[in-house]
C-alpha cells in the first residue's frame, strides 16, 4: 500500500547534524610564559639577528607536489548521498530523544497511577469495597466529540482512497518503474502526513511522486524548504504536461488529375478520343483557364 510505503514515522530533519559545538574542547593549550622577560646568563653570546624579510615582489617558488597534496587533502564536495546519510543520523538522534521523553513521561504517569490507586484502595476500605454508581458507569461522549471523531474517520478514508488511486495510476502509467521510484522514496525517508496530504491534493499525485523518486536531489531540495514554499513546489510538479499537437501542413490539398476530373461541359479528355477531338477539347480547356486567370486579376 502506498501509504504504508511512503509515510515516515518520524518527520525528517534536515539541519546539519554531527557538527562539533562552537568552542568545544579543541582549543590550543595556553602558551608557557613563565620564562618571559628573563635575560640570558652572563658570558653567553647574544642571539643572532633574524634574517631580513625577502624583498617585495620575490615570492618563494610554489612546490607542485605540495600543491597537489593539499588539493588531494581537501574534503570532497558533498553529494546527495552524503546529505541523506547526515539526515538519517539526525533522524535517529531525534528518535532517541523522543523515546527518552516518552520513557520519562511514562514513568511519571506510572507514579501518578500508583498514588491514585493507593488512595482508591484506601477509599474502598472506608466504603466496604462498594464503588459508587457514578464510577461504575462509563463516561459518554459529548455531541461535539462524536462529530469530531466522525470527521476524523471520513478524512482518513478520503486520504486512503486518494493514496490508493495515486498508486493505481502510477502503476498503470509508469509500469515497472513505479516500484523503483517508490522504493527510492522509502529509502530517502518518505513523507510526513501533511506533506503526503499536500501531494495527494495536487492535480497529478502520481507524476509528483515519480519525479521526486527519480531525482533524489530534487526531493532533498523540496523537503528542505519551509512548508508554504514546499507546497508551492509540489503544486508545480503536479501540473499536467501539455500534449504537443502536430501543426497542420501548409501544403495545398492535392489536385485531381485532368484525366479523372469530371466536367459537366463534355470537355473531359479521354485516351479513347481521336486526335482532332482531343486537341479541340484541350484548346477549349486552356482558353477557359486563361479567361479565369484574367478575371481573377481584374
Topology:
Elements: H1 2-6, H2 64-73, H3 80-127, H4 133-136, H5 143-174, H6 177-188, H7 193-200, H8 205-214, H9 216-223, H10 227-237, H11 275-297
Helix pairs in contact: 5-8, 6-8, 8-9
Count of β-strands? 0
Given the structure, what is the number of helices? 11
Using the alpha-carbon principal axes, give the shape.
elongated
Poorly predicted spans: 9-43
The value of Rg in angstroms is: 43 Å
Please describe the biggest sheet, giving its number of strands, its sense, and whether it closes into a barrel: none
The chain-level mean pLDDT equals 74
Helix-strand pattern, N to C?
HHHHHHHHHHH
Q: What portion of the residues fall into strands of 2 or more residues?
A: under 5%
What percentage of residues falls in helices of 4 or more residues? 55-70%
Query: Termini, distance in Å?
Result: 76 Å
**By helix and strand content, what is the structural category?**
mainly alpha
Amino acid at each position: 500500500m502506498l501509504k504504508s510505503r511512503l509515510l515516515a514515522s518520524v518527520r525528517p530533519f534536515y539541519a546539519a547534524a554531527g557538527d562539533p559545538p562552537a568552542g568545544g574542547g579543541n582549543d590550543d593549550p595556553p602558551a608557557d610564559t613563565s620564562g618571559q622577560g628573563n635575560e640570558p646568563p652572563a658570558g653567553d653570546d647574544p642571539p643572532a639577528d633574524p634574517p631580513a624579510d625577502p624583498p617585495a615582489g620575490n615570492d618563494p617558488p610554489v612546490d607542485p607536489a605540495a600543491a597537489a597534496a593539499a588539493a588531494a587533502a581537501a574534503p570532497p564536495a558533498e553529494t546527495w548521498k552524503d546529505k541523506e546519510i547526515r539526515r538519517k543520523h539526525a533522524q535517529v538522534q531525534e528518535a532517541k530523544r523522543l523515546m527518552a521523553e516518552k520513557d520519562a513521561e511514562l514513568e511519571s504517569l506510572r507514579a501518578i497511577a500508583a498514588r491514585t490507586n493507593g488512595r482508591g484502595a484506601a477509599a474502598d476500605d472506608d466504603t466496604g469495597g462498594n464503588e459508587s454508581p457514578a464510577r461504575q458507569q462509563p463516561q459518554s461522549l459529548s455531541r461535539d466529540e462524536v462529530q469530531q471523531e466522525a470527521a476524523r474517520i471520513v478524512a482518513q478514508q478520503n486520504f486512503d482512497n486518494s493514496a490508493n488511486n495515486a498508486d493505481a495510476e502510477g502503476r498503470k502509467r509508469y509500469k515497472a518503474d513505479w516500484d523503483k521510484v517508490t522504493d527510492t522514496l522509502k529509502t530517502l525517508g518518505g513523507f510526513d502526513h501533511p506533506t503526503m496530504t499536500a501531494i495527494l491534493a495536487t492535480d497529478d499525485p502520481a507524476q509528483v511522486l515519480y519525479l521526486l523518486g527519480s531525482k533524489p536531489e530534487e526531493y532533498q531540495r523540496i523537503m528542505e524548504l519551509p512548508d508554504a514554499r514546499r507546497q508551492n513546489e509540489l503544486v508545480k510538479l503536479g501540473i499536467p504536461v501539455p500534449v504537443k499537437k502536430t501543426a497542420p501542413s501548409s501544403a495545398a490539398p492535392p489536385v485531381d488529375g485532368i484525366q479523372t476530373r469530371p466536367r459537366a461541359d463534355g470537355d473531359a479528355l479521354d485516351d479513347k478520343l481521336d486526335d482532332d477531338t482531343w486537341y479541340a477539347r484541350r484548346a477549349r480547356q486552356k482558353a477557359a483557364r486563361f479567361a479565369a486567370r484574367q478575371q481573377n486579376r481584374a
